[in-house]
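To the wet lab folks,

You asked to see what we're planning to order before we commit. Fair enough. Below is the target structure as tokens, and below that is the sequence we designed to fit it. If anything looks off to you, flag it before the synthesis order goes out.
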């Protein structure tokens, strides 16, 4: 099913990819700024794990198995791999959303995270989560690279 969720998720995952590509110094992807507990790379791994599982696996049946602990412990993944993994996540999200028709949007989401809510509610929730971390990554990039854009 083509829906506005597909358009929004794809648009902002492409923004995520652009953010990672724009780091002037690839090492900065894995650095933290003072007072910030996660690197941009860690946030990318976390977002990919979340979306591959909550949309790709739970809605799309991809079979993805999430390792949330590793999302926060793995470091030093090359930029090229992160970008390829973002591209793969875009496809997993699109596939999961294509399998989510209007009736499914109103059904109770298969995993209770913040209460019992519809699939549409959780897709909105996950989209907000994506954008929250996308903003953090943008800010970290600008701080660490000394860039204003």
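Sequence we intend to order:
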């Amino acid at each position: 099913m083509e829906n506005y969720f597909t358009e929004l998720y794809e648009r902002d995952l492409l923004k995520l990819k652009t953010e990672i590509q724009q780091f002037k110094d690839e090492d900065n992807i894995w650095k933290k700024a003072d007072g910030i507990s996660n690197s941009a790379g860690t946030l990318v791994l976390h977002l990919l794990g979340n979306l591959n599982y909550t949309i790709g696996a739970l809605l799309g049946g991809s079979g993805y198995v999430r390792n949330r602990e590793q999302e926060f412990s793995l470091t030093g993944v090359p930029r090229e791999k992160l970008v390829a993994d973002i591209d793969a996540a875009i496809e997993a999200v699109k596939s999961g959303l294509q399998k989510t028709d209007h009736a499914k949007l109103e059904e109770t989401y298969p995993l209770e995270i913040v209460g019992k809510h519809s699939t549409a509610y959780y897709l909105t929730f996950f989209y907000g989560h994506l954008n929250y971390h996308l903003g953090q990554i943008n800010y970290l990039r600008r701080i660490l690279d000394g860039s204003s854009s």
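Structural context that might help your review: Residues 34 and 143 are 10 Å apart (CA to CA). The helical segments are 4-22, 40-57, 68-73, 79-98, 102-106, 119-145.

Thanks,
Computational group
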